[in-house]
């Protein structure tokens, strides 16, 4: 069964794919009219958008599959693979643009008025769609949607520069500007591709997501109880739309097994309700030690040291693998 959020993500990718085909077709038509290398570069980038969106569509279907014996954490990391693949395609498109502009630099550009109109229409469409996908990707915690949205936004930004360049050619008749624009586009788009590949590698290698850790710590501070003496060795890893959290929770040593279970359950529920995303927690409980008394606010009869100070939980100290003292 496909989770509702995955259904939404797949629907947004289909929307991106449909609009992308229209935009790419319009840009290639614009190149046919104008013979401008810069417009061809823009069309090639849109073609990459379509291919990447199709691959993202397939990856989201795979990522929506539930966990099984071979994939206990689910299949969500396929989204990072899709994001990296899109980055590679963008990088290849950048090299293709550069090569094409160099071997075809003596083109005479024609019908620039039609080319400018096409750039305005497609640039606006890319910007609106990119912003929409980026916001939905952030809402649904989808690296694929965010990557697709950022790529479309960058495409819209380059369209503004392209529009200025075509206008300059239209006014001055200096056709060498076409070559300069194309080369600059190639460099800019190539850097965007490298950035996407870098982010995908970070996700695949479980690099610490400081923004996610900060969100989790904020949720813990808001729901903190006296029995949660300290939290340490906190780790958070995202698999698709699911967030997996591992941590150690220090509780009073004299709690019964049932009481400790209830405390952990409240801990997990607090995180789920605060983050409003699918969260899977693995909590290891530690008994308090005499050294914990100075930071513990529990009013108990076995205290061995007076209370001194309540430790504020911060990303730096909750990730450290040691009890707070």
**CATH class division of the largest domain:** Mainly Alpha
Q: What is the level-2 CATH architecture name of the largest domain?
A: Up-down Bundle
Which series of helices and strands comes N to C? HHHHHHHEEHEH
Q: What's the alpha carbon Rg, rounded to whole Å?
A: 26 Å
Class of secondary structure makeup: mainly alpha
Strand percentage: 5-15%
Distance between the termini: 46 Å
| CATH fold assignment of the largest domain | Alpha-lytic protease prodomain-like
Low-confidence blocks of residues: none
Q: Mean of residue pLDDT? A: 82
Instruction: Spell out the CATH superfamily of the largest domain.
Output: Cation efflux protein transmembrane domain
- The total of beta strands comes to 3
Query: What strand line-up does the widest sheet have?
Result: 1-2-3
Number of helices: 9
Helix content: 55-70%
Largest sheet: 3 strands, mixed
Shape descriptor reads: elongated
Number of structural domains: 2
Describe this structure in words.
The chain has helices spanning 4-34, 37-63, 78-103, 112-139, 143-172, 176-204, 210-222, 257-275, 315-318, and strands spanning 230-239, 242-251, 278-287. It has a 3-stranded mixed beta sheet with strand order 1-2-3, covered by helices on one side. The protein has 9 helices and 3 strands, in the order H-H-H-H-H-H-H-E-E-H-E-H. By secondary structure, the chain is mainly alpha-helical. The chain folds into 2 domains: 4-204, Cation efflux protein transmembrane domain (Alpha-lytic protease prodomain-like, Up-down Bundle), CATH 1.20.1510; 210-318, Cation efflux protein, cytoplasmic domain (Alpha-Beta Plaits, 2-Layer Sandwich), CATH 3.30.70.1350. It is elongated and about 90 Å long. Helix content is 64%, strand content 9%.
């Amino acid at each position: 069964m496909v989770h509702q959020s995955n259904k939404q993500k797949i629907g947004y990718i289909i929307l991106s794919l449909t609009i992308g085909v229209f935009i790419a077709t319009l840009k290639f038509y614009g190149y046919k009219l104008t013979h401008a290398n810069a417009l061809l570069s823009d069309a090639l980038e849109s073609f990459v958008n379509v291919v990447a969106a199709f691959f993202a569509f397939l990856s989201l279907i795979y990522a929506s599959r539930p966990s099984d014996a071979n994939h206990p954490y689910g299949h969500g990391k396929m989204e990072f693979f899709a994001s990296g693949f899109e980055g590679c395609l963008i990088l290849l498109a950048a090299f293709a643009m550069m090569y094409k502009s160099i071997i075809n630099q003596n083109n005479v550009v024609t019908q620039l008025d039609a080319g400018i109109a096409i750039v305005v229409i497609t640039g606006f469409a890319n910007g609106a769609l990119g912003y929409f996908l980026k916001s939905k990707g952030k809402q649904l915690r989808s690296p694929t949607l965010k990557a697709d949205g950022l790529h479309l936004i960058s495409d819209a930004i380059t369209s503004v520069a392209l529009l200025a360049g075509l206008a300059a050619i239209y006014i001055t008749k200096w056709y060498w500007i076409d070559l300069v624009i194309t080369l600059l586009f190639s460099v800019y788009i190539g850097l965007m591709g490298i950035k996407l590949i870098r982010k995908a590698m970070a996700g695949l290698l479980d690099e610490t997501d400081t923004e996610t850790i900060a969100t989790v710590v904020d949720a813990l501070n808001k729901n903190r109880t006296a029995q949660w003496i300290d939290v340490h060795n906190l780790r958070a890893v995202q698999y698709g739309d699911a967030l997996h959290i591992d941590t150690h929770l220090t509780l009073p040593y004299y709690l019964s097994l049932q009481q400790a279970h209830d405390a952990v359950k409240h801990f997990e529920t607090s995180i789920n309700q605060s983050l409003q995303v699918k969260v899977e927690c693995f909590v290891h409980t530690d008994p308090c030690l005499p050294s914990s008394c100075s930071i513990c606010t529990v009013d108990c009869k076995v205290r061995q040291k007076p209370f001194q100070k309540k430790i504020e939980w911060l990303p730096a100290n909750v990730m450290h693998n040691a009890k707070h003292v």
